[in-house]
Design brief:
By secondary structure, the protein is α+β, with helices and mostly antiparallel strands. It has 19 helices and 30 strands. Strand 29 and strand 30 form a beta hairpin.
Length: about 800
């Protein structure tokens, strides 16, 4: 993402703010200076370790706690005098259906290519900016509904205050004592009943009193529908001078036991109740990216009526069961020390100086919690903020930035046993294969489909923002890797048949648009960029950057493999294989680095420590570069990582964790993980601090910890490839590997204690530990266990 800002005033900000790149030996010194003088005693994890908790209410949005059911989101502040619940609905974006493909682009394309091949890169950028960018050049922003507010009284004085978020139940709880009364508030968003539910209780009858209303920055109005119901109705923001097409509604029903319910000016009033349950839901008229004929009033009325008719305990119980159906599939334990008993914000603030392995485990599971909360079948995919955004104009629009960020959101899904949560992403790719086909034809005269570096609710696919950032035609091709991974983990041929036309269309675009580089003779993309990096000629514009070649190789390989499995398109398979062999190969440059560009420009680049490490896609998430399979290229990738440095934006640190883990460098990986968990890159509520908040860093952190413990690629399951000394003993259960394998793993003193593989499909694989390779062939439903005899793994 373009642009970096930093928070300051935290304990280590003065040290870290200047560390654009941290060499390994310097980083080791920094961490050594902040480390505790002696290791802390280790204990097993406790049930409460998967709870975020605090001694004070949230003041800033990045201190509030997130709830979500994939479609509805809320941020709970936990105030005493005034509670704030900031609300989101996942289809509330600005604008209306539109197609921004630029019809002038096709005529300009030959001249742009000529300028690039003649080395006139700045001139090519100028022409692209004038003739080949989207119209409008900006996409729409994700937007907030506003806030549901509960005003209790003038005083915030309270004792025994605690607010928490239980990841295992997806329930937020606030408790405190005031004027001799203990108050409790529970909140959750049910994926079953599609409502936000808040229950307010007290240990003395007649003690629950408050006023309930809305605050919103949107164009909206409040209607009171009796003493128990209040509705916020509004419209989304315009885009490119045209009115927005979406209407939204947030409906609230308040059910009190005892006391009185009345109305005020734009508010509901509850006085001296024994207990109150608040039901809230929201909807828009969005149905698809080209259909806005929905009825938000009918939706919200039906959902509220159905929820109110059910007992609270049933709604809560069904919610917890459904959440745990997903969340409980994976457990992890890195050990715990006494620091795990501190409030979450204090642990984060001190994370660079104290031994707190349980914080890493909490972060791991928090990533899974967030994905469950912001991406479920039938919802929109996780965007740059997942689901949670307080602004009418979110950071970077809260869109789907697909030159890394959207993909990173879904890296942990398959290996941490959440495959169905990828469904919204797959659905979006189906949509953009349609809108992208229009863009491919209009702008490139090509078959197939294309998406550039961003898309939005309306599935826009043309290049946006500026030529420097948007001239990148391989975004859709990268997304296709997630479609293939779903198949590779589950091996469902019916699903493969469904997605094959999408893979084929993405490949056809490059069959039609790859051109021969006059200097090298290789087939290249042109125009393109290596996101979002400026090379020695003052721009990003180039031909055939390394990342493009790597992504297209994966796309071509997976399309051919799919066609072979489905026994179709023999002629196309042959054409694609031939074209694949003509792509620019991975190359090692003069500094021993993996080249980022077709030419060896790396050491003269504008920013040696750039946040993007695009050319290392081949190492992760791809498997074109591996330590055992391509050791020279792996060494070159390592050199590139050293040159780039470790400290960067949150998501960029997340990517580096995965890359170093793939290289098998456990100590280096853990040192970078500590940077991610530190106060410069993790907010008090554990949101990733880009800054500002972007959720991809959270998901990259979870994925990176998986890679430290287990890697699955090339028909192998590699255990403990990057285990750090900071986690000498631990266990993880429920991880998933390709070909339908479940992996349970425990280790002691840095060595595997027990490994259990369970096959769902009866496919073959290989189990790898160090240099040991074990051939594994189990029947469907069969398990095999292995223990460590001090030298190697042996069958248990």
């Amino acid at each position: 993402m373009a642009g970096i800002t930093r928070r300051t005033g935290l304990k280590f900000s003065a040290v870290l703010a200047g560390m654009t790149a941290i060499p390994a030996h310097v980083l080791a010194q920094v961490l050594a200076q902040t480390a505790l003088p002696s290791p802390q005693p280790r204990q097993p994890a406790k049930p409460g370790d998967l709870t975020l908790w605090y001694k004070t209410p949230a003041v800033e949005w990045t201190e509030a706690l997130p709830l979500g059911n994939g479609r509805l989101g809320a941020m709970v502040f936990g105030g005493v005098a005034r509670e704030r619940l900031q609300l989101n609905e996942d289809t509330l974006y600005a604008g209306a259906p539109y197609q921004p493909a630029n019809p002038e682009a096709l005529a300009a394309l030959p001249e742009v290519r000529k300028l690039i091949f003649d080395g006139q890169y700045l001139e090519a950028q100028t022409l692209i900016q004038a003739r080949m960018m989207a119209n409008p050049i900006r996409q729409v922003s994700y937007q907030t509904i506003g806030e549901l507010t509960l005003t209790f009284g003038p005083s915030s004085n309270a004792s025994g205050y605690r607010r928490e978020l239980d990841l295992t139940r997806a329930v937020s709880t606030v408790t405190y004592r005031q004027n001799g009364v203990t108050y409790t508030r529970e909140a959750f968003i049910s994926p079953v009943d599609q409502v936000l539910v808040v229950r307010l209780t007290a240990d003395k009858p007649g003690s629950v009193s408050f006023q309930l209303g809305f605050e919103t920055p949107m164009a909206a109005a409040v209607a009171i529908e009796g003493p128990t119901e209040i509705v916020l109705s509004g419209r989304n923001s315009p885009h490119n001078g045209k009115d927005g097409a979406l209407r939204f509604e947030n409906r609230v029903r308040v059910v009190a036991k005892g006391g009185q319910q009345t109305t005020g000016v734009d508010e509901l009033v509850v006085s001296k109740a024994d207990e109150v349950i608040i039901y809230s839901t929201a909807a828009t008229n969005y149905k698809t990216y080209r259909d806005v004929s929905g009825d938000p009033t009918a939706i919200t009325k039906a959902q509220i009526a159905a929820a109110v008719a059910r007992p609270y305990d049933q709604i809560l119980g069904d919610h917890v069961v459904e959440h745990q159906r997903l969340f409980n599939r994976v457990s992890v334990d890195f050990g715990r020390t006494e620091f795990a008993d501190q409030p979450t914000n204090e642990r984060i603030a001190k994370s660079l100086s104290q031994d707190d392995p349980a914080l890493a485990a909490l972060y791991f599971q928090y990533g899974r919690y967030l994905l469950i909360g912001c991406s479920r079948p039938g919802t929109q995919p996780a965007n740059l903020q997942g689901l949670w955004n307080e602004k009418t104009s979110a950071p970077w629009g809260g869109k789907y930035t697909i030159n890394i960020n959207t993909e990173m959101n879904y890296w942990p899904a398959e290996p941490t046993a959440l495959p169905e949560l990828v469904d919204p992403l797959i659905s979006m790719v189906r949509d953009i294969s349609v809108t992208g086909a229009e863009t491919a034809k209009i702008m490139y005269g090509a078959r197939g489909w294309v998406t550039h570096h961003n898309t939005d609710l309306w599935r826009a696919t043309a290049p946006i923002d500026a030529a420097f950032y948007g001239t990148w035609p391989t975004g859709g091709a990268w997304l296709c890797l997630h479609l293939w991974d779903r198949y590779d983990y589950g091996r469902d041929k019916a699903y493969l048949k469904e997605i094959y036309p999408i893979l084929k269309g993405a490949s056809l675009f490059f069959v039609d648009t790859l051109v021969k580089d006059p200097a090298s003779g290789y087939m290249v993309t042109s125009p393109s960029i290596s996101p979002e990096n400026r090379h020695k000629f003052g721009t990003s514009i180039c031909a055939g950057p390394t990342m493009d070649m790597q992504i297209i190789r994966d796309l071509f390989d997976n399309t051919v493999r799919a066609a072979e499995i489905l026994k179709t398109d023999a002629a196309l398979r042959k054409e694609i294989k031939t074209l694949r062999g003509q792509l620019v190969p991975n190359q090692i440059g003069k500094a021993g680095q993996l080249q980022e560009w077709k030419d060896d420009w790396d050491m003269d680049a504008h920013d040696m420590h750039h946040r993007h490490v695009s050319h290392l896609y081949g190492l992760y998430p791809s498997t074109q570069i591996t330590p055992r399979g391509t050791p020279e290229l792996a060494a070159a990738a390592k050199k590139s990582l050293d040159l780039r440095g470790d400290m960067s934006t949150g998501w960029a640190i997340g990517w580096r964790i995965n890359l170093w883990a793939r290289l098998g460098e456990g100590e280096r990986t853990h040192s970078i993980l500590k940077l991610l968990l530190g106060p410069e890159r993790t907010y008090p509520n554990m949101f990733d601090a880009h800054p500002p908040f972007q959720i991809d860093g959270n998901f990259g952190g979870t994925s990176g910890m998986v890679e430290m413990l287990m890697q699955s690629y090339n028909d192998e399951i590699i255990i403990l490839p990057a285990l750090p000394s900071a986690w000498p003993t631990g266990k993880v259960a429920g991880l998933q590997a390709r070909a339908g394998y479940g992996v349970d793993l425990s280790w002691k003193d840095g060595k595997p204690e027990r490994v259990t593989l369970t096959s769902r499909l009866g496919e073959a694989t290989r189990l790898v530990f160090g240099q040991q390779v074990i051939e594994v062939k189990l029947r469907a439903g069969q398990s095999a266990a292995y223990t460590f005899d001090g030298v190697k793994l042996v069958a248990a």
